[in-house]
Amino acid sequence: MTSVVTTDSRFELLEGETLLEGLERTNHEVEFQCRAGYCGSCRTHLVSGKVRYLTDPLAYIARDEILPCCCVPQGPVQLEARLAHTPEQPVLGEEFNIQSSLDFGPNEPSE
């Protein structure tokens, strides 16, 4: 297993897993489409470490970028990738009353 450090997390990549699969498994926010290095939508900044491509990517990448869909690390790596955050849903009590919770201002007679 290889250690992967991201912007706000750390995880171990499982045997046979691409970086994209590891990022998905650990609930990281990463865009993707083709999963084969063609489209470039998974383009990610590589902070440190080295990767090996399983297939030669066709999408353009800068010197400090990788396509996690088609590469595996060659030792520990550090990536710019954030955990996906789900908005917390408010829990409403049984006695919740929407009218008493909202301020509609003074009541005005309708004309």
Summarize the structure.
This protein has one domain (2-83): Beta-grasp domain (Ubiquitin-like (UB roll), Roll), CATH 3.10.20.30. It has two helices and nine strands; from the N terminus they run E-E-H-E-E-E-E-E-E-E-H.
Written account of the structure:
The chain has 111 residues and is mainly beta. The chain has one domain (2-83): Beta-grasp domain (Ubiquitin-like (UB roll), Roll). It has helices at 19-25, 98-101; strands spanning 2-6, 9-13, 28-29, 44-48, 51-53, 65-66, 71-73, 77-79, 82-83. The strands form 3 sheets. The chain has a 5-stranded mixed beta sheet, with no helix packed on it. Pfam families: Fer2.
Euclidean distance between termini CA atoms: 73 Å
- At CATH level 2, the architecture is Roll
> Tell me about the biggest sheet?
5 strands, mixed
Query: Per DSSP, what share of the residues sits in E-state strands of 2 or more residues?
Result: 25-35%
Mean pLDDT: 85
Q: Helical element count? A: 2
Q: Numbering strands along the chain, what is their spatial order in the largest sheet? A: 2-1-8-4-6
What is the subunit organization of this protein?
Answer: single chain
CATH superfamily: Beta-grasp domain
CATH C-level class is Alpha Beta
Ranges where pLDDT stays below 50 over 5 or more residues in a row are 98-102
Domain 2Fe-2S ferredoxin-type: 1-85
Pfam family, one: Fer2
Organism: Advenella kashmirensis W13003
Protein name: 2Fe-2S iron-sulfur cluster binding protein
